[in-house]
Amino acid sequence: MVTSYFQKMKGTTSSPPRVSLTEIAWSWVGAFLGIAAVAYVHYGWIEKTDLVMIIGSFGASAVLAYGAIRSPLAQPRNLVGGHVISALIGVASLQVLGHWPWLAAAVAVATAIAAMHATKTLHPPGGATALIAVIGSDKIHHLGYVYALMPVALGALIMLLVALVVNNIPKSRRYPEFWW
Questions:
Q1: Which pLDDT score, from 0 to 100, does residue 70 have?
Q2: Is residue 145 part of a domain?
Q3: Is the dihedral of CA 141, 143, 149, 155 positive or negative?
Q4: Residues 118-138, buried b or exposed e (16+ Cβ, 10 A)?
Q5: Does residue 12 lie within any of the structural domains?
Q6: Average pLDDT for runs of 10 along the chain of length 180
Q7: Domain housing 115
Q8: Following DSSP, what letter does each residue of 121-149 receive, concatenated?
Q9: Which residue of 11, 31, 42, 179 sits 20 to 30 Å from the alpha carbon of 98, by its own alpha carbon?
Q10: End-to-end CA distance of the chain
Q11: What pLDDT score was predicted for residue 102?
Q12: CA-CA distances (angstroms) from residue 155 to 42, 62, 79?
């Protein structure tokens, strides 16, 4: 029994093949433009306010939305829905369990994963979005549920718009695979 348990850790397939230099270049262009757009809004318009526009989980979203465009986890409903659902759960976890930050963090991430599964919006960076709502700065905490709208929904929508434009320029790429 123990042996079969550890046998599962060997894996069942070999590593996927490398992607072409063209694919790498388009992934780079998309990630650059997507993060640049969100960061420009943050540093150009938002930075001097009490709002925030850019969060760490957008970096992971860029990997999916520009580098793994055929993945179900990178599709529009997952990109936007996964972030927004997770943000709402993260804020709720902080508000209910904020006196126990370790517990609020664990509840936020675990519940976000469950909710994303239940709503077919699984987007791994959403787990980070939920966690950021709990462990983020006072600036993030003061946003309350506005955090789900800005930076989360607005930032995800900006990244989605860039993904729609950039990922459809080369004939070899098509995005999205599905909307709903």
A1: 96
A2: yes
A3: negative
A4: eeebbbbbbbbbbbbbbbbee
A5: no
A6: 84 87 96 96 82 90 98 98 98 98 98 98 98 95 95 97 97 95
A7: 20-166
A8: ---THHHHHHHHHHHS-HHHHHHTTHHII
A9: 42
A10: 41
A11: 98
A12: 10, 11, 10
Q: What is the pLDDT of residue 148?
A: 97
* Residue 13 in domain: no
pLDDT, position 99: 97
**Which of the 8 DSSP states describes residue 100?**
S
Query: What is the token pair recorded at 40?
Result: 């420009």
Domain count, the chain: 1
DSSP state of 51: -
Distance CA 93, CA 111 (A): 9
CB neighbours of residue 80 within 10 Å: 20
Half-sphere exposure of residue 156: CA atoms within 13 angstroms, side-chain side = 28
Tell me whether residue 15 is in a domain: no
